[in-house]
Amino acid sequence: MKIDKRITPPAANKVSAAKGKGTEKPAAAVKSGSDSLTLTESSTRVRALESQLASVDVADAGKVETVKAALANGTFAVDAEVVADRLIDHTKETLRKRPRKK
């Protein structure tokens, strides 16, 4: 099972970014008949960083190659007790997050 830890930033229709260094004053909103969104410089930076983080591969290439080699050689060992414990933990967490019926 692969866990995808990528962050996808929500899309915005219209964005106005504030100019200046370190100022937290919002930029003037666009005056028109449609909706608009105003972001501070720091929130614009956060969005840019989220975009960059989304493209980062979170897999450890060295570990993946080690496991592939062990599988190919037939030396990969599975600890059934650890697998069972993690399945139980995952099931408990899933049940805790499930909405309760009234």
- Cα-atom radius of gyration: 23 Å
Ranges where pLDDT stays below 50 over 5 or more residues in a row are 12-24
Largest sheet: 2 strands, parallel
Q: Total strand count, please?
A: 2
Structural class comes to mainly alpha
- Strand coverage percent: 5-15%
Shape: flat
Helix count, DSSP H or I runs of 4 or more residues: 3
The structural domain count equals 2
Q: Main sheet: which strands, in order across? A: 1-2
Mean model confidence by pLDDT: 77
Q: Could you tell me how far the N terminus lies from the C terminus, measured between alpha carbons in angstroms?
A: 33 Å
Order of helices and strands: EEHHH
Helix content: 40-55%
Care to describe what's here?
With 102 residues, the chain is mostly helical. Helix content is 44%, strand content 6%. It folds into 2 domains: 1-58, no CATH class; 59-102, no CATH class. The chain is built from 3 helices and 2 strands, in the order ββααα. It has a two-stranded parallel sheet with strand order 1-2. The longest helix has 18 residues, at 80-97. It starts with 14 loop residues before the first strand and ends in a 5-residue tail after the last helix.
